[in-house]
Protein backbone atom coordinates (compact mmCIF):
# COMPACT_ATOMS: atom_id res chain seq x y z
CA UNK A 1 0.00 0.00 0.00
CA UNK A 2 3.00 2.29 0.47
CA UNK A 3 3.72 2.00 -3.23
CA UNK A 4 0.13 2.80 -4.12
CA UNK A 5 0.16 5.81 -1.81
CA UNK A 6 3.35 7.02 -3.46
CA UNK A 7 1.89 6.55 -6.93
CA UNK A 8 -1.23 8.45 -5.96
CA UNK A 9 0.70 11.33 -4.47
CA UNK A 10 2.82 11.57 -7.62
CA UNK A 11 -0.23 11.68 -9.86
CA UNK A 12 0.51 8.32 -11.53
CA UNK A 13 -2.78 6.58 -10.75
CA UNK A 14 -4.54 5.55 -13.98
CA UNK A 15 -8.09 6.54 -14.87
CA UNK A 16 -10.76 4.35 -13.26
CA UNK A 17 -8.37 2.90 -10.67
CA UNK A 18 -10.20 1.22 -7.75
CA UNK A 19 -8.76 1.29 -4.26
CA UNK A 20 -8.17 -2.17 -2.77
CA UNK A 21 -9.45 -3.26 0.59
CA UNK A 22 -7.49 -1.13 3.02
CA UNK A 23 -5.71 -2.97 5.85
CA UNK A 24 -5.98 0.00 8.20
CA UNK A 25 -8.42 -0.38 11.08
CA UNK A 26 -11.68 1.40 10.41
CA UNK A 27 -11.68 0.55 6.71
CA UNK A 28 -11.66 -3.20 6.98
CA UNK A 29 -14.11 -4.98 4.71
CA UNK A 30 -14.91 -1.73 2.92
CA UNK A 31 -14.26 -0.83 -0.72
CA UNK A 32 -14.31 2.76 -1.77
CA UNK A 33 -16.29 3.69 -4.91
CA UNK A 34 -14.59 3.83 -8.32
CA UNK A 35 -12.77 7.12 -8.74
CA UNK A 36 -13.54 9.18 -11.86
CA UNK A 37 -10.95 11.81 -12.55
CA UNK A 38 -8.65 13.25 -15.21
CA UNK A 39 -5.74 11.21 -16.47
CA UNK A 40 -3.84 11.90 -13.25
CA UNK A 41 -4.73 12.78 -9.67
CA UNK A 42 -3.78 16.17 -8.22
CA UNK A 43 -0.37 15.99 -6.55
CA UNK A 44 -1.88 16.43 -3.07
CA UNK A 45 -4.08 13.35 -3.33
CA UNK A 46 -3.06 10.45 -1.12
CA UNK A 47 -4.59 7.56 0.72
CA UNK A 48 -3.77 9.25 4.01
CA UNK A 49 -6.21 12.04 3.11
CA UNK A 50 -8.92 9.45 2.62
CA UNK A 51 -8.04 7.92 5.95
CA UNK A 52 -8.31 11.32 7.62
CA UNK A 53 -12.05 11.54 6.98
CA UNK A 54 -12.86 8.05 8.17
CA UNK A 55 -11.76 7.79 11.80
CA UNK A 56 -13.34 5.05 13.90
CA UNK A 57 -12.26 6.51 17.24
CA UNK A 58 -12.45 9.75 19.18
CA UNK A 59 -10.62 11.59 21.97
CA UNK A 60 -12.01 12.82 25.29
CA UNK A 61 -9.34 15.12 26.69
CA UNK A 62 -9.29 16.37 30.25
CA UNK A 63 -7.90 19.91 30.47
CA UNK A 64 -6.42 20.74 33.88
CA UNK A 65 -3.38 18.58 34.52
CA UNK A 66 -3.37 17.25 30.94
CA UNK A 67 -3.22 20.33 28.72
CA UNK A 68 -2.60 23.09 31.27
CA UNK A 69 -1.62 23.61 34.90
CA UNK A 70 -3.66 26.59 35.98
CA UNK A 71 -3.05 29.06 33.16
CA UNK A 72 0.28 27.58 32.11
CA UNK A 73 0.24 25.24 29.08
CA UNK A 74 1.91 21.87 29.50
CA UNK A 75 4.64 21.78 26.79
CA UNK A 76 3.58 18.40 25.41
CA UNK A 77 0.08 19.69 24.64
CA UNK A 78 1.06 21.90 21.70
CA UNK A 79 3.09 19.09 20.13
CA UNK A 80 0.17 16.71 20.57
CA UNK A 81 -2.29 19.12 18.97
CA UNK A 82 -0.11 19.56 15.91
CA UNK A 83 -0.62 15.86 15.26
CA UNK A 84 -4.39 16.13 15.63
CA UNK A 85 -5.11 18.68 12.91
CA UNK A 86 -4.54 18.91 9.18
CA UNK A 87 -2.97 21.80 7.26
CA UNK A 88 -6.31 23.66 7.36
CA UNK A 89 -6.48 23.43 11.14
CA UNK A 90 -9.30 20.86 11.09
CA UNK A 91 -9.25 17.96 13.51
CA UNK A 92 -8.39 14.62 11.92
CA UNK A 93 -10.53 12.75 14.46
CA UNK A 94 -13.46 13.83 16.65
CA UNK A 95 -12.24 15.49 19.83
CA UNK A 96 -14.13 16.73 22.89
CA UNK A 97 -12.47 18.54 25.78
CA UNK A 98 -14.18 17.28 28.94
CA UNK A 99 -13.41 19.32 32.03
CA UNK A 100 -14.87 19.16 35.51
CA UNK A 101 -14.57 22.94 35.76
CA UNK A 102 -17.89 24.73 36.12
CA UNK A 103 -17.01 28.33 36.93
CA UNK A 104 -17.30 29.78 33.43
CA UNK A 105 -19.09 29.54 30.11
CA UNK A 106 -17.91 27.08 27.49
CA UNK A 107 -16.74 29.94 25.29
CA UNK A 108 -14.33 31.21 27.94
CA UNK A 109 -12.84 27.74 28.42
CA UNK A 110 -12.41 27.44 24.65
CA UNK A 111 -10.71 30.84 24.59
CA UNK A 112 -8.34 29.72 27.35
CA UNK A 113 -7.14 26.92 25.07
CA UNK A 114 -6.58 29.24 22.11
CA UNK A 115 -2.92 29.77 23.01
CA UNK A 116 -2.42 26.05 22.32
CA UNK A 117 -4.88 25.58 19.47
CA UNK A 118 -8.11 27.15 18.27
CA UNK A 119 -10.89 25.06 19.80
CA UNK A 120 -14.54 25.45 18.68
CA UNK A 121 -16.94 26.01 21.57
CA UNK A 122 -19.03 22.98 20.58
CA UNK A 123 -16.02 20.77 21.36
CA UNK A 124 -15.79 21.95 24.97
CA UNK A 125 -17.81 20.21 27.65
CA UNK A 126 -18.04 21.68 31.14
CA UNK A 127 -19.14 19.70 34.19
CA UNK A 128 -22.53 21.40 33.99
CA UNK A 129 -23.10 20.83 30.24
CA UNK A 130 -25.42 17.79 30.73
CA UNK A 131 -27.84 20.11 32.58
CA UNK A 132 -29.05 21.11 29.12
CA UNK A 133 -30.90 17.78 29.10
CA UNK A 134 -32.77 18.46 32.37
CA UNK A 135 -35.44 20.52 30.66
CA UNK A 136 -38.10 19.87 33.31
CA UNK A 137 -36.14 22.08 35.73
CA UNK A 138 -35.46 24.91 33.29
CA UNK A 139 -38.69 26.89 33.87
CA UNK A 140 -38.50 26.54 37.67
CA UNK A 141 -36.82 28.73 40.25
CA UNK A 142 -33.45 27.20 41.15
CA UNK A 143 -30.82 28.21 43.68
CA UNK A 144 -27.38 28.09 42.07
CA UNK A 145 -24.14 27.81 44.01
CA UNK A 146 -20.58 28.26 42.82
CA UNK A 147 -18.48 31.08 41.45
CA UNK A 148 -18.04 32.93 38.19
CA UNK A 149 -20.92 34.32 36.09
CA UNK A 150 -23.51 32.00 37.63
CA UNK A 151 -26.57 33.69 36.13
CA UNK A 152 -25.03 33.71 32.65
CA UNK A 153 -24.08 30.04 32.98
CA UNK A 154 -27.57 29.11 34.21
CA UNK A 155 -29.32 31.04 31.43
CA UNK A 156 -26.98 29.52 28.82
CA UNK A 157 -27.95 26.05 30.04
CA UNK A 158 -31.66 26.88 29.72
CA UNK A 159 -32.70 27.90 33.25
CA UNK A 160 -35.12 30.83 33.18
CA UNK A 161 -35.34 31.65 36.92
CA UNK A 162 -31.93 31.15 38.53
CA UNK A 163 -31.24 32.68 41.94
CA UNK A 164 -27.73 33.01 43.36
CA UNK A 165 -26.75 32.67 47.01
CA UNK A 166 -25.87 36.37 46.97
CA UNK A 167 -29.40 37.19 45.84
CA UNK A 168 -30.74 34.97 48.61
CA UNK A 169 -28.62 36.80 51.20
CA UNK A 170 -30.04 40.10 49.98
CA UNK A 171 -33.61 38.84 50.37
CA UNK A 172 -33.11 37.20 53.78
CA UNK A 173 -30.73 39.30 55.90
CA UNK A 174 -31.31 37.26 59.05
CA UNK A 175 -30.11 34.02 57.49
CA UNK A 176 -26.52 35.20 57.10
CA UNK A 177 -25.26 36.75 60.31
CA UNK A 178 -22.20 38.24 58.62
CA UNK A 179 -24.02 41.24 57.12
CA UNK A 180 -27.33 42.73 58.28
CA UNK A 181 -27.56 45.67 55.86
CA UNK A 182 -30.13 44.08 53.61
CA UNK A 183 -33.90 44.18 53.22
CA UNK A 184 -36.07 41.05 53.74
CA UNK A 185 -38.00 39.71 50.79
CA UNK A 186 -39.88 36.66 49.54
CA UNK A 187 -38.20 33.91 47.53
CA UNK A 188 -39.08 30.34 46.68
CA UNK A 189 -36.48 27.83 45.44
CA UNK A 190 -37.80 24.55 44.05
CA UNK A 191 -34.40 22.96 43.45
CA UNK A 192 -30.69 23.48 44.09
CA UNK A 193 -27.96 23.35 41.45
CA UNK A 194 -24.34 23.09 42.63
CA UNK A 195 -22.07 24.31 39.83
CA UNK A 196 -18.80 24.29 41.73
CA UNK A 197 -16.99 25.33 44.89
CA UNK A 198 -18.03 28.82 46.04
CA UNK A 199 -15.81 31.57 47.45
CA UNK A 200 -17.70 31.95 50.75
CA UNK A 201 -18.11 28.36 51.87
CA UNK A 202 -19.75 29.15 55.23
CA UNK A 203 -22.44 31.35 53.65
CA UNK A 204 -23.23 28.88 50.88
CA UNK A 205 -23.36 25.93 53.28
CA UNK A 206 -25.67 27.81 55.64
CA UNK A 207 -28.13 29.03 53.01
CA UNK A 208 -28.26 25.77 51.06
CA UNK A 209 -29.08 23.94 54.30
CA UNK A 210 -31.78 26.57 54.98
CA UNK A 211 -33.34 25.94 51.57
CA UNK A 212 -33.21 22.14 51.95
CA UNK A 213 -34.71 22.10 55.45
CA UNK A 214 -37.55 24.47 54.54
CA UNK A 215 -38.52 22.84 51.23
CA UNK A 216 -37.47 25.93 49.32
CA UNK A 217 -38.90 28.59 51.66
CA UNK A 218 -35.75 29.73 53.49
CA UNK A 219 -37.58 32.25 55.69
CA UNK A 220 -39.59 29.48 57.38
CA UNK A 221 -38.59 27.33 60.38
CA UNK A 222 -36.83 24.02 59.76
CA UNK A 223 -39.02 20.98 59.16
CA UNK A 224 -36.98 17.77 59.41
CA UNK A 225 -39.98 15.71 58.37
CA UNK A 226 -39.75 17.17 54.85
CA UNK A 227 -37.83 14.24 53.46
CA UNK A 228 -36.81 13.57 50.81
CA UNK A 229 -35.86 17.20 50.37
CA UNK A 230 -36.21 19.28 47.22
CA UNK A 231 -34.08 18.14 44.25
CA UNK A 232 -30.32 18.74 44.31
CA UNK A 233 -28.30 18.53 41.09
CA UNK A 234 -24.53 18.62 41.50
CA UNK A 235 -21.70 19.14 39.02
CA UNK A 236 -18.01 18.33 39.49
CA UNK A 237 -17.24 15.84 42.25
CA UNK A 238 -13.46 16.33 42.23
CA UNK A 239 -12.16 16.16 45.77
CA UNK A 240 -9.00 18.01 44.71
CA UNK A 241 -7.50 19.50 41.58
CA UNK A 242 -4.09 20.70 40.44
CA UNK A 243 -3.14 24.28 39.55
CA UNK A 244 0.23 26.08 39.82
CA UNK A 245 0.68 25.10 43.48
CA UNK A 246 2.92 22.13 44.24
CA UNK A 247 0.15 20.24 46.06
CA UNK A 248 -3.50 19.68 45.01
CA UNK A 249 -6.20 22.20 46.02
CA UNK A 250 -9.69 21.56 47.44
CA UNK A 251 -12.27 20.97 44.73
CA UNK A 252 -16.04 21.01 44.64
CA UNK A 253 -16.08 17.44 45.90
CA UNK A 254 -14.67 18.71 49.19
CA UNK A 255 -17.46 21.29 49.45
CA UNK A 256 -20.00 18.53 48.78
CA UNK A 257 -18.47 16.40 51.57
CA UNK A 258 -19.03 19.32 53.94
CA UNK A 259 -22.62 19.85 52.79
CA UNK A 260 -23.47 16.14 53.01
CA UNK A 261 -22.04 15.78 56.50
CA UNK A 262 -23.71 18.94 57.84
CA UNK A 263 -27.07 17.80 56.49
CA UNK A 264 -26.69 14.35 58.02
CA UNK A 265 -25.44 15.75 61.33
CA UNK A 266 -28.55 17.94 61.59
CA UNK A 267 -31.19 15.53 60.27
CA UNK A 268 -29.68 12.08 60.74
CA UNK A 269 -30.48 11.37 57.09
CA UNK A 270 -28.45 11.25 53.91
CA UNK A 271 -28.44 14.12 51.47
CA UNK A 272 -29.90 12.83 48.20
CA UNK A 273 -28.94 13.93 44.70
CA UNK A 274 -31.34 14.04 41.78
CA UNK A 275 -28.32 13.80 39.48
CA UNK A 276 -24.54 13.84 39.71
CA UNK A 277 -22.58 15.02 36.70
CA UNK A 278 -19.02 15.71 35.84
CA UNK A 279 -16.46 12.93 35.71
CA UNK A 280 -16.73 10.09 36.74
CA UNK A 281 -20.51 10.22 36.24
CA UNK A 282 -21.83 7.86 33.57
CA UNK A 283 -24.15 10.66 32.48
CA UNK A 284 -21.16 12.86 31.64
CA UNK A 285 -19.62 10.23 29.38
CA UNK A 286 -22.96 9.60 27.67
CA UNK A 287 -23.20 13.30 26.88
CA UNK A 288 -19.56 13.44 25.74
CA UNK A 289 -20.23 10.45 23.49
CA UNK A 290 -23.19 12.35 22.03
CA UNK A 291 -20.96 15.38 21.30
CA UNK A 292 -18.42 13.11 19.58
CA UNK A 293 -21.14 11.72 17.31
CA UNK A 294 -22.50 15.19 16.59
CA UNK A 295 -19.02 16.35 15.59
CA UNK A 296 -18.50 13.36 13.32
CA UNK A 297 -21.89 13.95 11.70
CA UNK A 298 -21.08 17.62 11.13
CA UNK A 299 -17.87 16.61 9.35
CA UNK A 300 -19.85 13.97 7.40
CA UNK A 301 -17.68 11.14 8.65
CA UNK A 302 -19.69 8.03 7.82
CA UNK A 303 -17.51 5.58 9.72
CA UNK A 304 -19.10 4.79 13.13
CA UNK A 305 -17.06 5.87 16.13
CA UNK A 306 -16.37 2.57 17.89
CA UNK A 307 -13.74 3.46 20.49
CA UNK A 308 -13.41 6.47 22.79
CA UNK A 309 -10.06 7.27 24.40
CA UNK A 310 -10.39 9.26 27.62
CA UNK A 311 -7.10 10.98 28.44
CA UNK A 312 -6.81 12.32 31.98
CA UNK A 313 -4.62 12.74 35.05
CA UNK A 314 -6.94 11.68 37.86
CA UNK A 315 -7.50 8.05 38.84
CA UNK A 316 -10.71 8.79 40.73
CA UNK A 317 -12.37 10.85 38.02
CA UNK A 318 -10.84 10.40 34.55
CA UNK A 319 -9.86 6.75 34.84
CA UNK A 320 -12.75 5.68 37.06
CA UNK A 321 -15.27 7.42 34.78
CA UNK A 322 -13.85 6.02 31.54
CA UNK A 323 -13.75 2.49 32.92
CA UNK A 324 -17.26 2.85 34.35
CA UNK A 325 -18.55 3.99 30.95
CA UNK A 326 -16.69 1.14 29.26
CA UNK A 327 -18.49 -1.26 31.58
CA UNK A 328 -21.80 0.38 30.66
CA UNK A 329 -21.04 0.04 26.93
CA UNK A 330 -20.16 -3.62 27.31
CA UNK A 331 -23.42 -4.31 29.13
CA UNK A 332 -25.40 -2.23 26.66
CA UNK A 333 -23.92 -4.01 23.67
CA UNK A 334 -24.56 -7.40 25.27
CA UNK A 335 -28.17 -6.36 25.93
CA UNK A 336 -27.75 -7.00 29.64
CA UNK A 337 -27.49 -3.43 30.83
CA UNK A 338 -30.29 -1.85 32.81
CA UNK A 339 -31.93 1.22 31.34
CA UNK A 340 -31.28 4.59 32.92
CA UNK A 341 -33.46 7.64 32.45
CA UNK A 342 -31.02 9.07 29.94
CA UNK A 343 -31.37 6.06 27.62
CA UNK A 344 -34.88 7.24 26.88
CA UNK A 345 -33.31 10.22 25.13
CA UNK A 346 -32.78 9.03 21.57
CA UNK A 347 -29.99 11.50 20.88
CA UNK A 348 -27.93 10.07 23.74
CA UNK A 349 -28.92 6.43 23.44
CA UNK A 350 -27.85 5.86 19.84
CA UNK A 351 -24.14 5.46 20.50
CA UNK A 352 -22.23 3.12 18.20
CA UNK A 353 -19.28 3.03 20.60
CA UNK A 354 -18.26 -0.36 21.94
CA UNK A 355 -15.33 0.64 24.16
CA UNK A 356 -14.08 3.56 26.23
CA UNK A 357 -10.37 3.22 27.00
CA UNK A 358 -8.69 5.08 29.86
CA UNK A 359 -5.29 6.69 29.30
CA UNK A 360 -3.55 8.15 32.36
CA UNK A 361 -0.95 10.90 32.03
CA UNK A 362 1.61 11.79 34.72
CA UNK A 363 1.48 15.59 34.42
CA UNK A 364 -1.28 16.36 36.93
CA UNK A 365 -2.91 14.88 40.02
CA UNK A 366 -1.68 11.33 39.45
CA UNK A 367 1.28 10.28 41.57
CA UNK A 368 2.84 7.06 40.26
CA UNK A 369 4.16 6.32 43.76
CA UNK A 370 0.67 6.30 45.37
CA UNK A 371 -0.80 2.85 45.92
CA UNK A 372 -4.28 2.06 44.70
CA UNK A 373 -6.60 1.70 47.72
CA UNK A 374 -7.94 -1.69 48.73
CA UNK A 375 -11.67 -2.36 48.78
CA UNK A 376 -11.80 -4.70 51.75
CA UNK A 377 -13.75 -4.35 55.00
CA UNK A 378 -10.80 -5.83 56.86
CA UNK A 379 -8.38 -3.13 55.70
CA UNK A 380 -10.16 0.15 56.35
CA UNK A 381 -6.87 1.86 57.17
CA UNK A 382 -5.57 1.15 53.66
CA UNK A 383 -8.69 2.40 51.92
CA UNK A 384 -8.41 6.04 50.84
CA UNK A 385 -11.11 6.48 48.22
CA UNK A 386 -11.19 10.05 46.90
CA UNK A 387 -14.29 9.47 44.80
CA UNK A 388 -17.76 10.66 45.68
CA UNK A 389 -19.79 9.02 48.42
CA UNK A 390 -22.39 7.66 45.98
CA UNK A 391 -19.85 5.86 43.78
CA UNK A 392 -18.87 2.45 45.05
CA UNK A 393 -15.18 1.81 45.00
CA UNK A 394 -14.01 -0.98 42.70
CA UNK A 395 -10.24 -1.50 42.31
CA UNK A 396 -10.75 -2.46 38.68
CA UNK A 397 -12.27 0.91 37.87
CA UNK A 398 -9.16 2.84 38.89
CA UNK A 399 -6.81 0.66 36.86
CA UNK A 400 -5.99 2.56 33.64
CA UNK A 401 -5.75 0.77 30.33
CA UNK A 402 -2.59 2.72 29.55
CA UNK A 403 -0.17 4.95 31.49
CA UNK A 404 1.95 7.47 29.56
CA UNK A 405 4.20 10.39 30.51
CA UNK A 406 2.12 13.14 28.89
CA UNK A 407 -0.60 13.95 26.38
CA UNK A 408 1.80 13.87 23.42
CA UNK A 409 2.76 10.30 24.27
CA UNK A 410 -0.96 9.52 24.64
CA UNK A 411 -1.71 10.71 21.10
CA UNK A 412 1.22 8.71 19.68
CA UNK A 413 0.08 5.59 21.51
CA UNK A 414 -3.53 5.87 20.36
CA UNK A 415 -2.57 6.49 16.74
CA UNK A 416 -0.40 3.39 16.95
CA UNK A 417 -3.18 1.30 18.52
CA UNK A 418 -5.62 2.43 15.82
CA UNK A 419 -3.13 2.10 12.94
CA UNK A 420 -4.01 5.69 12.15
CA UNK A 421 -1.70 7.60 9.80
CA UNK A 422 -2.20 11.39 10.05
CA UNK A 423 -1.01 13.87 7.41
Describe the model.
This protein is of the alpha/beta class and 423 residues long. The chain has 2 domains: 57-127 and 280-335 and 352-370 and 379-418, Rossmann fold (3-Layer(aba) Sandwich), CATH 3.40.50; 131-276, 3-Layer(aba) Sandwich (Rossmann fold). The protein contains 12 helices and 15 strands. It has helices spanning 2-9, 47-52, 75-82, 106-112, 150-157, 165-171, 201-213, 252-267, 282-298, 315-333, 346-349, 407-417; strands at 57-61, 68-69, 72-73, 95-98, 124-125, 141-145, 161-164, 191-194, 232-235, 240-241, 249-250, 275-277, 307-312, 355-361, 402-404. A 6-stranded parallel sheet has the order 5-4-1-13-14-15, sandwiched between helices. A 5-stranded parallel sheet has the order 7-6-8-9-12, sandwiched between helices. The chain has a two-stranded antiparallel ribbon with strand order 2-3. α3 runs parallel beside α12 (407-417) and α7 (201-213) crosses α8. The longest helix is centred in the last third of the chain and has 19 residues, at 315-333. The chain is elongated, with a radius of gyration of 24 Å. The model is unreliable at 1-48, 179-185, 336-345 and 372-383 (pLDDT under 50).
What topology emerges from the helices and strands here?
Elements: H1 2-9, H2 47-52, E1 57-61, E2 68-69, E3 72-73, H3 75-82, E4 95-98, H4 106-112, E5 124-125, E6 141-145, H5 150-157, E7 161-164, H6 165-171, E8 191-194, H7 201-213, E9 232-235, E10 240-241, E11 249-250, H8 252-267, E12 275-277, H9 282-298, E13 307-312, H10 315-333, H11 346-349, E14 355-361, E15 402-404, H12 407-417
Parallel strand pairs: 1-4, 1-13, 4-5, 6-7, 6-8, 8-9, 9-12, 13-14, 14-15
Antiparallel strand pairs: 2-3, 10-11
Helix pairs in contact: 3-12, 7-8
